[in-house]
Design a protein that fits this description.
Number of helices: 14
Structural class: alpha+beta
Oligomer: single chain
Strand content: 15-25%
Shape: globular
Mean pLDDT: 79
Helix content: 25-40%
Strand order of the largest sheet: 1-3-2-6-5-4
Low-confidence stretches: 1-10, 151-158, 311-325, 428-442
Length: 442
């Protein structure tokens, strides 16, 4: 893994901070070491307003990653903070980085809090170095406590409400057939929590949407959407769950390109006919996405305007499609995780907090299994230094023998470690070096 090109991470969150007067700072970053994928930037802070020197987000990310290189074998006492000071003349910047251990994503990680300044401010900064380091160390001490208390804390799931969802019904037969609900939730989890729910009745559509949102984090639920009667809502790329209404003829067509460009594969649920279909897993989804993107860019390269692109030059030329006939497939794999959950949750009385608590425990179980899977892969690959070759052993050792169970836990782990599917399954789907370089040059 170290010799290859790691998959692209999701967009780094960035906050612009209003400051009074002149600010010599270019940016501050919080980064951590991922044992499979290497250095990852978690957050960027930058002063708001015009600056004499500007660094792009990509450059800031590169500089933050630079500070963690060589820290994989770091050996320090618990709570120790190491200080690193860089002068990068080729970039015209200085970096002050404090390295420490912290709880992140349910595991102990090597982290770095860094500040980046122009090299022209070196003489100004050096007399203040000791003062700045001491203040940053105290910030880190407080930050480590908050990281341990709230970061990836599954206790927040206890506050979820199951009112107006299928899980609050007296019996599974009240609203839908048990097999349909089982398949919908299972596929929803297998596609990283991304689902489209379509139908003619907005109340029925929204009940399924609310039910699926129970299996998302609070932040993911904010990136989901109910349908509205008499609305003109269309499919939006990047949402986790969205409800969509069929037209007056009872049909619904999805834009192929937008669905393919979604960050994760998607589940398609039709509440009128109780069907559940899903896109291929993450590594195949990424491959199809990149293939379509290359075709689009190559077609654009050969023309003077997007309007001049002949439709036959682009892979999958039709901009609309029917799910049954294209990239959505039947849910082929059975699971025991969701099946047991549904059977047991309806044994509890509705209208009480018991079902909410049981749901929270189920999600905590899935989260712990995903963390265990990641740790297992780290150990088997010597933290990403060699390929993963023991899928059969993993399924046996982690009790994930059924493909549906493995797909659910792999999808949760993918959201914790972007690119995991490609690392484990996807060597045949990697683009060649030449193709990748050509794509990046556009």
């Amino acid at each position: 893994m170290s010799s290859g090109c790691p998959p692209q991470s999701p967009a780094v969150e960035k906050t612009e901070v209003a400051v009074e007067g002149e600010c010599p700072l270019l940016a501050a970053t919080f980064a951590y070491w991922d044992n499979i994928l290497g250095p990852r930037v978690h957050h960027i802070w930058a002063p708001k307003g015009d600056q004499l020197m500007y660094l792009s987000d990509g450059e800031v990310t590169f500089l933050a990653n630079h500070t963690l290189n060589g820290e994989i074998l770091r050996s320090a006492e618990c709570g120790a903070v190491d200080v690193k000071f860089f002068v990068l003349a080729e970039k015209g910047v200085i970096i002050v980085s404090l390295i420490f251990d912290g709880e992140l994503k349910g595991d102990k990680n090597t982290c770095a809090l860094s500040v980046i300044l122009p090299q022209t401010e070196l003489a100004f900064y050096l007399p203040l170095h000791a003062v700045c380091v001491e203040r940053l160390k105290h910030v880190i001490r407080k930050g480590r406590i908050w990281m341990q208390k709230v970061c990836w804390d599954s206790s927040a799931l206890h506050s979820q409400q199951i009112k107006d969802t299928l899980l609050n019904d007296d019996d599974i037969g009240d609203s839908c057939h048990e097999g349909f609900l089982h398949k919908a939730i299972s596929s929803h989890l297998q596609t990283c929590g991304c689902s489209i729910v379509v139908g003619s009745n907005p109340e029925k559509v929204n009940k399924i949407v609310r039910t699926l949102c129970l299996f998302l984090t609070p932040a993911e639920r904010k990136c989901s959407r109910l349908c509205r009667a008499n609305s003109s809502f269309k499919y939006d790329t990047g949402l986790f769950v969205q409800g969509l209404l069929k037209d007056s003829t009872g049909s619904f067509v999805l834009p192929f390109r937008q669905v393919l460009y979604s960050p994760y594969p998607t589940t398609h649920i039709d509440v009128d006919i109780n069907t559940v279909k899903q896109m291929p897993p993450c590594h195949e989804h990424t491959f199809n996405q990149r293939r379509y993107m290359r075709s689009e860019l190559n077609a654009l390269w050969k023309t003077d305007s997007e309007e001049d692109i002949p439709p036959e030059t682009v892979i999958h030329t039709d901009e609309t499609f029917t799910p049954d006939l294209n990239i959505f497939q039947d849910v082929m794999h059975n699971d025991t995780l969701v099946k047991s959950f549904i059977e047991e949750v309806f044994m509890l009385k509705p209208g009480l907090s018991l079902r909410s608590t049981y749901l929270a425990q189920f999600l905590l179980l899935l989260h712990r299994k995903a963390l265990t899977l990641l740790k297992y892969i780290e150990d088997e690959t010597q933290k990403g230094k060699k390929p993963f070759r023991s899928l059969r052993n993993l399924k046996t050792d982690l009790d994930l023998k059924l493909e549906g169970d493995l797909n659910i836990i792999m999808a949760l782990a993918e959201k914790l470690r972007a690119g995991l599917h490609s690392f484990v399954f996807g060597k045949p789907f990697y683009t060649s070096v030449q193709e990748r370089d050509a794509l990046m040059s556009f």
